[in-house]
Amino acid sequence: MLEIRNLTKIFEKKDALGRVVNTINACRNVNLTIHRGETLGLVGESGSGKSTLGKIILGLDDATEGEILLNGERIDSSRHKNRTFINTMQIIFQDPYSSTNPRRSALSIVAEPLEMLMSKKEAYDKAEMILNKVGINGEDIYKLPREYSGGQRQRIGIARAVATQPDFIVCDEPVSALDVSIQANIINLLMDLQEEEELTYLFITHDLSVVKYIADRIAVMCKGKIVELGCTKDIFERPVHAYTQTLLKAIPIPDPRMKKKQPFEVVNNSSYLLDGTWTEVHEGHFALMED
Ligand SMILES: Nc1ncnc2c1ncn2[C@@H]1O[C@H](COP(=O)(O)OP(=O)(O)OP(=O)(O)O)[C@@H](O)[C@H]1O
Ligand SMILES: [Mg+2]
Asked: What is the whole-number distance in angstroms between the Cα of residue 128 and the centre of ligand 2?
């Protein structure tokens, strides 16, 4: 469905005179294919370039090099920017509060993208139906974002994203700000919606344990580079790249006394292998291997 070819993104930091003082290679020659109906987990520690990749796919940022194809058609062009793809692609953010208007009710937040496609009355009727589907019912649909719990707010973010019936959704850390007990509810909701609406997900997270149940395949990103790609079972049972192994070790052991998972820290300056040969180690399981 979606093909990312040789995608590179370089951010340039400039001083007051416009001279480049620093460059950040946020994505380095990323090649990925996302199949229709699957959930591809994109994992890596903070700053590894996951959100940058997600934003470029959605046309919210430009790539420095490379191409993105949706159903064989290039979308990293000006046509993409015209939001012709509003029906095709959507995003769910970590904190829907910061991405919604605090003075509008849940109903009007969800109805907003629909109003571009249908009459106001139809949009509000449909928005109500979708809110009910994600578990926001009755008078609750008229509340303002701050009047909801974090989990409910994320349900509204999800309702807004699926309202226009997209094919593909980038979920950028959708459960990272939530309690572990609520995380499972939201993940189940996303999985139910995926089945009903035949959605394809790119599920971004720094926490491998979160994608264990939802992802069909996992891509591991380290300092802008995909270092390992395989089905979820392979990544968990026989990780090949040292970075993947470190991420797996960083999964905290469940402890009922711990309310929120501690954000893990991978030793940021350790030198993981980033140059090497992309090798198929098992069927459909690839990793960067030393030459
Ligand atoms: N607009 C920007 N201008 C300059 N640098 C940026 C910009 N956006 C991201 N970066 C840099 O690119 C790198 C990748 O950032 P990105 O947000 O993609 O990481 P991430 O994997 O999503 O991290 P996190 O898990 O913390 O969300 C970081 O070093 C970041 O500082
Ligand atoms: Mg991010």
From this structure: 30
The amino acid at residue 207 is: D
* Nearest protein CA to atom 9 of ligand 1, as residue: 52
Q: Tell me how crowded residue 264 is: count the other CB atoms within 10 A of its CB.
A: 16
Domain boundaries, the chain: 2-37+49-88+214-289
pLDDT the model gives residue 267: 53
- Compute, in angstroms, the gap from residue 51 CA to the centroid of ligand 1: 7
What is the rounded CA–CA span in Å between residue 166 and residue 160? 11
- In ligand 1, the atom with minimum distance to the C-alpha of 50 is 21
- Does the beta carbon of 54 lie inside 6 Å of ligand 1? no
**Domain 2-37+49-88+214-289 belongs in CATH node 1.10.150:** no
156 within 8 A of 109, measured Cβ to Cβ: yes
- Confidence band (pLDDT; 50, 70, 90) for 259? very low
Query: How sure is the predictor about 67, in pLDDT bands with cuts at 50, 70 and 90?
Result: very high
